[in-house]
Amino acid sequence: MKINEATSTDLKVIKELEKLGWKAGDTLLYQPEYQLSPEQQKEFKGKKSVKPDIVLTDLNGDIVAVFENKLEDEKKGLVKLRALYSQALKPRFLYACSPERVLFYDTAWRGLDAGEFRRVDGFMPLEEMKLKIEQKRKINLSQEIEIDTSIAGGMDKIVGKERYYQRESIGMLKRE
Known about the structure:
By secondary structure, the protein is α+β, with helices and mostly antiparallel strands. The chain has helices at 5-19, 38-43, 74-89, 126-142, 164-175; strands at 28-30, 34-35, 49-50, 54-57, 63-68, 93-97, 102-106, 118-120, 155-156, 161-162.
């Protein structure tokens, strides 16, 4: 049998994900194609769509993880994950897989945590991903947002009223 990416990596990864409860065709999508918006097409010149190797979604269909399994040129593969898939599809988690190893990146990492992909022994089940997403959401909710009222939410001198609706809108964005 000829060994290619599908037999050496994709099928192995899919089997491991299915063991964790991911469902092929439901929460585990193999090579789905996503059309880019006109704005994204301008940002990613020459691309009308993206087609990651594997996409994991939550039960609402929201993308939670994207996989790139072509790591012959590792640097190119990792850049593709962070610069293209991460920006276009907005997943929380990124995985880069080869027959030899699995690399992981959490797009919520900040400060010293952010930076490079880390080697991991396996993948997360949906429940663990949902827990991490919810933990981050709660942290964001507890952080106080300081609004510069010289920019938004201050007094509108022309109308003679305070722009309260701008502060409310900023507060709503925080909750998302």
